[in-house]
Amino acid sequence: MALFEHTVTVAALDRHWFEEAAGHAVDLFDASREQDGAILLPDGRPIHGLRLLKGRHLQSGAWYGENPEEKDGEDGEDGEDGEDGEDGKGASEAAPKAAPEAAVLREWRPSRTVEVESRVAEEGMSLRVGVRLREPRTPKALEVSLDGHNPQGGSLYRFSGRAKADLHAWWAALERPSSAPPAARAPVVGTAKHRLGKARLTVTPRPAEDGTWRVSVVLSVRGRWLLRPVAAVGLLFARRPVERGFREGVDSAAEEWAELLAELPSLHGEALRAEIADALTTP
To answer: What is the rounded distance in angstroms from the CA atom of residue 67 to the CA atom of residue 54?
Structure first.
């Protein structure tokens, strides 16, 4: 097994702002309505790049995506199918043919769980991505799953990944004194599996004295079953470039985080809600 670790310092995200913004976004979607495929916010403006392709808006089994042209003659037929799939079955059997990239709503309970599954076909690969957010109005946990395969290939063209971010544990880790040791359990854990190997990634934050975050990222990689000796030899020779790429990837993510925080509005209340609404409706 090969183990890699890298720690970066990043600007802190205000928890109260984050939870307030999440609550406004969920409330805007919950109060939205569908009209001729377009998803309209309470003020009547359509959400940019999001259309109802099949099923009933905010009901289990509803399909969403971008299909600006072919929907004109298909709304009626899709509506009937959506009624059959109101329980999440009929409408989710297969993605609409005109939408190679689409997402199906598995669950919409804003006070408890929101779950979405998207399917993408790209460069010969078929990808299925699932996202589940628990207690969306004040997010407590985020779970992501990824399954991919090449329909024309064998087991070497299959892979899967799972990740969970325990947001409650994340904030708790940042409330510890800066002099305290890092949390014993990583708030963010991800795993990836392939026939040839398995990887595990953990992310653990701790507060710094100047108010920033010190984020430690640990990656472990190993071969699977009879391929473990082969993978061990390969990692022995490739350790330096792999470690360099890992560090560069973490540093790049930290830079993107800084850019994201710089673009976030420092607003609250109705002003923040209006800003989010504008972002949803602006190309």
So the answer is: 11
User: Any idea what DSSP says for residue 179?
Assistant: T
Which residue in this structure is represented by tokens 């014993």?
184
Distance, first Cα to last Cα, the chain? 46
Percentage helix, strand, coil, to 5, in the chain? 35, 35, 30
Contacts of 168 (CB under 8 A, 6+ apart): 140, 141
Q: Count of alpha carbons within 13 Å of 149, Cβ hemisphere only?
A: 8
Reported as a single tens digit per residue, the pLDDT across 226-277 is 555 655 556 665 678 888 999 999 999 999 999 999 999 999 999 999 999 9
Q: Which residues pair with 57 in a beta bridge?
A: none
Q: Which residues contact 29 (CB under 8 A, 6 or more apart)?
A: 58
Q: How many helices (H) and strands (E) does the chain have?
A: 5, 13
SS3 of residue 139 by DSSP: coil
Enter the DSSP assignment of 151.
T
3-state DSSP call for residue 190? Answer: strand
Rounded Cα distance, 161 and 223, in Å? 16
Instruction: Tell the burial category of 118 from Cβ atoms under 10 Å away from its Cβ (0-12, 13-18, 19+).
Output: middle
Quick: pLDDT tens for 62-77. 999 985 554 444 444 4
Read off the amino acid at residue 156: L
Residues 276, 24 contacting (CB under 8 angstroms): yes
Residue pair 28/280 in contact (Cβ under 8 Å)? The answer is yes
**Rounded Cα gap, residues 201 and 217, in angstroms:** 7
Specify burial of residue 37 (Cβ count, 10 A radius: 0-12, 13-18, 19+). buried
* SS3 of residue 233 by DSSP: helix
